Amino acid sequence: MLKRFKAFLSFLREQSDYLEKTVTLDDKTYHFREVFPKDIKALMHVQQLVYKEYQPWHRGAFLSELYSIHIHRYLCVSVHKKIIAFIGIRVVGSDAHITNIAVIPTYQNKGLGKQLLAEAEMFARQHGCQTMSLEVRISNSGAQRLYTTFGYTTRQVLTEYYSEGNEDALDMVKQLK
């Protein structure tokens, strides 16, 4: 019985309302699509390349998000069928919270982060959100610049937010009009 229920959940999860997109940036073609449970290993590899020794999310955290009862979307970007970036967004009330975003270093500063944020914002607007929010490490000035350029402002500093290294985070928010 449990096997059939898991198969049913898997079937439901594989049904996506996100239409795949192909985007060309600097003469390179990128494919955007929804994330499925079968992609978790690749997402964890992206995290490993981005965060080095620190793995912020484990398999269970990704599964929890992908099967969450909250309105959510996880998108990945691939080149030649290899996942190189992803973003997660969860809607709670009138806020769309970016739960995770990562682009492997060799593909950073090529516009993928902006494109992922734009996709997330479109999703937030479709769900009537008034704000978008996220947390970012104090030491991650590159990401902070991206978010500021995209209209995010710092709401507060979260002291020792990240357990790894007890690093502070900026709680950032963007008002959607």
Automatic annotation (TrEMBL):
It holds the Pfam family Acetyltransf_1. Keywords: Acyltransferase, Cytoplasm, Transferase. One of its GO terms (molecular function) is N-acetyltransferase activity. CDD domains: NAT_SF. InterPro entries: AcTrfase_RimI/Ard1 (IPR006464), Acyl_CoA_acyltransferase (IPR016181), GNAT_dom (IPR000182), YpeA/RimI_acetyltransf (IPR050680). Residues 30-177 form the N-acetyltransferase domain. Belongs to the acetyltransferase family. RimI subfamily. PANTHER family: ACETYLTRANSFERASE (PTHR43420), ACETYLTRANSFERASE YPEA (PTHR43420:SF44). This is Ribosomal-protein-alanine acetyltransferase. It comes from Enterococcus saccharolyticus subsp. saccharolyticus ATCC 43076.
